[in-house]
Write a structure and sequence with these properties.
Length: about 110
C-alpha cells in the first residue's frame, strides 16, 4: 500500500500548482480523502476534503482558490491551487480516511 503526492514546487504569488495523490495497493474510491498542510513550526491542518460521492469542503482560507477532485479510474485525488499566496507555503499531505494511510508529503513554496 502506498500513497504518493507530487506536483509541489516553488511558485510566485498569484501562481498555480496542481497536486496529485496517487494510491497503489488498494482501491480508495470508497473512502473520503483529505488534503492537509503543515507550515514550519505549525500543526498539520485540514485544507480540503472530498467524500467517496464527490462532496467537497474547504477551509475558509482557500475557498474560491483551491479545488479538490478525484479520478477513481486513476486512483488519484487532485488539489488544484490557484492564486497562491505566501501563507500557502507548507508541506502538503493526503490522507485516506478509515485506512490510516498518509502520503510522504510534497513541498509547496510560494515566494517571489
Amino acid at each position: 500500500v502506498q500513497l504518493v503526492e507530487s506536483g509541489g514546487g516553488l511558485v510566485q504569488p498569484g501562481g498555480s500548482l496542481r497536486l496529485s495523490c496517487v494510491a497503489s495497493g488498494f482501491t480508495f474510491s470508497s473512502y473520503t480523502v483529505t488534503w492537509l498542510r503543515q507550515a514550519p513550526g505549525k500543526d498539520r491542518k485540514l485544507v480540503a476534503i472530498i467524500t467517496s460521492t464527490g462532496t467537497t469542503n474547504y477551509v475558509d482560507s482557500v475557498k474560491g482558490r483551491f479545488t479538490i477532485s478525484r479520478d477513481n479510474t486513476k486512483n488519484t485525488v487532485y488539489l488544484q491551487m490557484n492564486s497562491l499566496k505566501p501563507e500557502d507555503t507548507a508541506v502538503y499531505y493526503c490522507y485516506v480516511h478509515e485506512t490510516g494511510y498518509w502520503g510522504q508529503g510534497t513541498q509547496v513554496t510560494v515566494s517571489s
